[in-house]
Request: fold
Amino acid sequence: MRVLHKESLNMTQHLKIDFVSDVSCPWCAIGLAALERAIDEVKDEIAVDLHFQPFELNPGMVAEGEDITEHLVAKYGSTPEQLAASREAIRARGADVGFTFSMDKRGRIYNTFDAHRLLHWAELEGRQLALKQALFKAYFTDGGNPSDRALLIQLAQGVGLDGGRAAEILASDEYSEAVRQQEAFYQQNGIHAVPAVIINERHLIQGGQPAAVFEQALRQIAAQA
Reply:
């Protein structure tokens, strides 16, 4: 029988990950799905503490939202051909990591501040990942409006959160200042595009990278730690 030293019984490394993103960002949905696959691959050696941090791609977005094609043309000067190519790339990358983009259902882009307030609360309740996943699915797969408070309450309830408490938060300014402070913190520290994956508050990975890239980074950082 092999005798293990006490030190060798505790080989698990612990990493903190801050995932800075917006719920209306398709590459954030791709990045999260890929990161989750990477985390699953290393779960026997690395324990991950995952937190979602707020970032608004369009903080001044009007309540009723904007047509997504008109918005992207105005913001980036994209041509119809470029938009079509981008949508296909997003759909294909999503399919690669098991996430469904229903491009025919997503015709508008919306304000996401209330969604971030609920995500802040969900972290306190231990349901942040589940709510983040539900928000991505609601918008990108089902074509829902993430600024619709009725939908937000429904999603909160669907992941085990108290619907009455969610409604109370949305009807007030609760967590607004906390979300704005977090947004300002990351912007002041150089985060101007998402997703931004920050490991142990030191190592930055930008963009919706493939799962293999995240896995390699997790292993290298854990080894250094």
Residues 1-9 have pLDDT under 50 and may be disordered. Residues 6-224 form a domain with the Glutaredoxin fold (CATH 3.40.30.10). The chain has one domain: 6-224.
